[in-house]
Amino acid sequence: MRKSLSRNPNMMRTMIGIGLVLILVLSYAVYSNTLDSEYYGYTTTNEEVELDMQETEEGSAEWYSTTISAITWINVSVSGAPEGSSIQVEAFGTEWYYSPLLGSPGAENFNCRHSLSADSGQVSESCELAVLHEKISEGGEDRMLGLVLNELPIGGLGYLHSDDSTSAEVQARELIERSEVIVTWRVKVLEDGEPVASEGVELSVSVVTHELVSVHEFKLDPVQESVYSLATLVGCFSLLLIIPLTVYFSVVYKTKKDERVRLETPEVKG
Fold this sequence. Notes:
Blueprint: H1 2-7, H2 10-35, E1 39-44, E2 47-50, E3 54-55, E4 62-79, E5 86-92, E6 96-98, E7 128-130, E8 132-136, E9 141-147, E10 157-161, H3 165-179, E11 180-191, E12 194-195, E13 202-210, E14 212-217, H4 222-264
Antiparallel strand pairs: 1-10, 1-14, 2-13, 3-4, 4-9, 4-11, 4-13, 5-8, 5-11, 6-7, 6-9, 11-12
Helix pairs in contact: 2-4
């Protein structure tokens, strides 16, 4: 290494110069993205609301309720339904996604966008999109969890691309307004195609609604991003130097070993 540097004294200066140039380029990239990212985050209420379900006919296990909101989730819980009976949830006005794995304790990572992997030991399946979904009661408490709109931010925080904060707020409001549709939810508990008696059957239906709260510009932390960029730069240079340094030290070690063996080997006198 010393011989290489003595033969080429500009090598170290070249490496330092390249490193400084890369640091300046990365710093400018972080600064420009921090100054004007053109991405905006919008926050929604993400509030769970209990629906007031009304009996379609007194004494019959058939209920309905109407919503005019931007909804992502619907959660239906039925207890006391006869074992083997059919629980049907129907939405007049929209289609919604359902799968028995949604909300299941054994499928915590399952959602309607990604199916389960075969390594999990469960059958890979996706959500079904329809107006009506059905579940066979197992007795006790039955639950059906469905995804109504996946365009809305499920966690209450979403991002969009826009020219300025004003147009970003307009886009966010338009997204919420487009999602506000009139939906009549109807829940039935059926046996042999007919509603069972509602006595002893308890129903709970809740939906997660969204209203726009605020819009803010997405900004990077310049200090944190600079540290990450510097760490990446150091890591890249380290990887580039590991191989030649390993070869260099291996050659030096082998040379010293051969020299030691040569000195320790007695000369053969003729």
